[in-house]
Amino acid sequence: MSRVPSPEMYIIVAMTQDHVIGNDNSIPWHISDDLKNFKRITSGNVVIMGRKTFESIGRPLPNRHNLIVSKTLPSVEGCEVFNDLKGAVERATEFDKKIFFIGGAEIYKEALEIASYMYISWVSGDIEGDTMFPAFDERQWQPVEEEEFEKFRLVLYQRNQET
């Protein structure tokens, strides 16, 4: 039996230089261009999120397969709920589409081990927050695309191949 190639797995996040991604269970900024990029990049694919991220969004994201990782959340209409990230990823691979990890901090921490790509919107300015993107070894990631916007810089990183 031949092994099916695994789908591409991406982290997608907006954060400050200090790695702030949230405050009081919400995004501490509103940047229209970043939201448009998020929609454009993730539409038609699979998104995996934690319970708090889902609650902050408040509904399934349209035109995407919505998978939620939670040990406490009951079933959610328009979404599938999994006890752990492993189960969500296994299900996500069945769709044969790109997989995007969209938050929060715990999901990002686990996804850093398995994702091959990261879209990071580096938000300009000092913004206070109580939720941080986990520390990661930037030497393991190579920028492959970059685009400047008024309030942020969108960078696509690819994990360096081990030699």
Protein architecture, described:
With about 160 residues, the protein is of the alpha/beta class. The protein has one domain (about 10-160): Dihydrofolate Reductase, subunit A. It is about 20% helix and about 35% strand. The chain has four helices and ten strands, in the order ββαβαββαβαββββ. It has helices at about 30-40, 50-55, 85-95, 105-110; strands at about 10-15, 20, 45-50, 65-70, 80, 100, 115-125, 130, 140-150, 150-160. Strands 5-4-3-6-1-7-10-9 form an eight-stranded mixed β-sheet, sandwiched between helices. Strands 2-8 form a two-stranded antiparallel ribbon. The longest helix is centred in the N-terminal third of the chain and has 11 residues, at about 30-40. The two termini are about 30 Å apart. The mean pLDDT is about 95.
